[in-house]
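Quiz preparation item.
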């Protein structure tokens, strides 16, 4: 995402989505990413890019002020990628993990960081084929971004539950709503960030972890919430890529409202509750297992309540900002859809039970990614 511009007090938001490329006949993920990215870039330029595995491609938006602007930009990028994939003989598929894939370790993209990751993490990367949704909110002050993150980090489990969209892996139902989160959670340098009272403390902790070689480099942390190392944003990385653009937009504006609410608390001198990292990792695991339909960690009380109630509490917490920016209707509609049809994992399982099996799940995901209703 390009650097955010000054928008007169309204923080910009931007998203990055990772997608799989699947063969329309076998429905397995195929290494078509470089070709698809190159073709789509002729239409949308640097808003598309290669990804970690060659069976993936990334789409991203420029900084946007409103939900409507974000919807238009993301729709334009998805359409370019859908068209490019079709011309290349593949299909674009928005799922946190591949429903079906060819065996063996994934073919990695040609990037020095990817090669360094293979050397450092070795066989841990043999099944590291996961697709995420990242949301950026403009915060130009990195010190403010770190301390704001202390307020935001307890809500990471809620965002995992809202976005759960990866129940299948290699043709089997894992029993989890977000298997992507489980794969990601095995790594020592991923998951909720540590509480840090200052930018200096944040950088010191990253440096110590990098010295253990659990992190590639201290300036490039991959925690689920971080001040982006290149952009003036606070970035959330915990979510599965979502099937529907409307869901993505609603989650993005909800996250912006949370960041703005938290930043104001920091400015008033509130340091945030120092939840232990192990508590948050456990809560993230529960969210990954059960998704929208389970019990969730309430960041305000520490109690476990139905995720729908936790989500309602989050909306109450940030409602003034949602109303100020005109985003309340987007979030309300998201929760109505979740109540009616469940999360992405529930939809995938329903498609699988319809009799078409894993191949049918892929077909429905491809249609949803391209914007078909249902």
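Solution:
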């Amino acid at each position: 995402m390009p650097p955010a511009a000054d928008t007169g007090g309204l923080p910009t938001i931007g998203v990055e989505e990772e997608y799989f490329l699947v063969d329309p006949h076998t429905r397995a993920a195929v290494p078509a990413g470089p070709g698809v990215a190159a073709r789509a870039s002729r239409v949308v330029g640097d808003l598309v890019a290669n990804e970690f595995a060659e069976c993936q491609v990334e789409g991203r938006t420029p900084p946007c002020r409103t939900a409507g602007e974000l919807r238009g930009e993301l729709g334009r990028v998805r359409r370019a990628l859908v068209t490019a994939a079709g011309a290349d003989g593949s299909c674009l598929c928005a799922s946190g993990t591949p429903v079906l894939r060819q065996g063996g370790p994934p073919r990695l993209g040609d990037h020095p960081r990817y090669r360094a990751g293979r050397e450092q993490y070795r066989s841990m990367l043999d099944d590291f084929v996961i697709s995420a949704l990242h949301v950026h909110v403009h915060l130009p002050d990195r010190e403010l971004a770190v301390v704001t993150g202390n307020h935001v980090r307890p809500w990471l489990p809620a965002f995992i539950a809202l976005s759960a969209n990866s129940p299948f892996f290699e043709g089997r139902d894992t029993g989890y709503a977000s298997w992507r989160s489980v794969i990601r959670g095995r790594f020592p340098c991923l998951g909720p960030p540590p509480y840090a009272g200052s930018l200096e403390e944040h950088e010191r902790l990253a440096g110590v972890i990098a010295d253990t070689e659990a992190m590639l480099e201290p300036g490039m942390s991959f925690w689920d919430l971080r001040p982006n190392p290149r952009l003036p944003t606070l970035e959330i990385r915990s979510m599965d890529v979502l099937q529907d653009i409307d869901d993505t937009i609603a989650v993005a504006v909800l996250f912006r409202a949370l960041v703005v609410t938290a930043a104001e608390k920091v400015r008033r001198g509130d340091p945030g509750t120092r939840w232990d990292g192990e508590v948050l990792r456990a809560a993230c695991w529960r969210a990954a297992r059960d998704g929208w339909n389970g019990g969730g960690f309430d960041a305000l009380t520490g109690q476990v309540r139905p995720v729908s109630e936790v989500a309602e509490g989050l909306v109450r917490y940030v409602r003034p900002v949602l109303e100020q920016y005109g985003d309340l209707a987007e979030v309300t509609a998201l929760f109505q859809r979740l109540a009616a049809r469940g999360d992405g994992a529930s939809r995938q399982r329903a498609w699988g039970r319809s009799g078409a099996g894993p191949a049918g799940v892929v077909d429905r995901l491809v249609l949803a990614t391209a914007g078909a209703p249902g």
